[in-house]
Amino acid sequence: MTTLTKQQQDPAARAGLPKAGKTARKGRLRRLGDLKMALFFIFPAMIGFVLFYLVPTIRGVYLSFTEYSILGDPTWIGIKNYTAMLGDELFWNAMGVTVQYVGLNIGFQTLIALGLALLMHRVAKSTFIRGALLLPFLVANVIVALLWFWMLDYQIGIVNEIINWMGLPRIAFFGSEQWAIPTIAAVNVWRHMGYTALLLFAGLQSIPNHVYEVASLDGASPTRTFWSITMPLLRPVLVLVLVVTVIGSFQVFDTVAVTTGGGPINASRVIQMYIYQKAFGESDFGYASALSVILFLILALVAFVQMKFLKGNESDLD
Known about the structure:
The mean pLDDT is 87. The chain is flat and about 65 Å long. Helix content is 72%, strand content 1%. By secondary structure, the chain is mostly helical.
């Protein structure tokens, strides 16, 4: 009986193919090389993330369990800062004001941005118009707040001059408890609606045209097409926009700081303003850190609920 060599026994060797083990080893080495290259490019960003995000976050959580001011060392007090919030009327007022602002800002911003996105998708094809919509977002928030603060001034603001010229009483937009939060929300809606509209417009661009063609052949009206095709297929982008805008709305600060400073009385003191006043106005960094931790948990919960119940990670295109 003739003894076969290893090369004769291996079909891959007879065919001139590399061995499976050698191929797998080369694949692992290639993946290892890709991983090293990826880590090389990620490393600088990781340094910034650790130094400016992770470490301050861990320290902030630690300080939330302490009584701390800049003049002394932190003193561990356990959960006293958190229990103190239960009876803190200013905290609950700040949360209520913030929720009111978020509701106005998100509601109007989303509706207006969706309308603008549909107009850009169906009517306005000009790149200039799309770029013009983004201009307010490119201006610093402080400058936008100052601009509208002067325009809406009770005595010399151009808006109140027009209102007075029409024979109507002047409105204290930033100086009235009734108007402060709606005015701040309107200013931020004006600044952000173009950016939000472009995000939604990008989502509309991803919807295949043949879906609309089929709906048209079936005799679907524009209204039926919008609710049965556009909105379901736009849902992932819309949920992403809602998550981002809700988180940003809860963190509103600069517009309030420039215009009302939290007043009149406490009518516009949002939670971020309250945190700032506790930390840098009263030097109570422990309590301010506890407020920040609670705000972080609220935002995480809101984002989770939005993604979970609105099914933002699913698409009807599949």
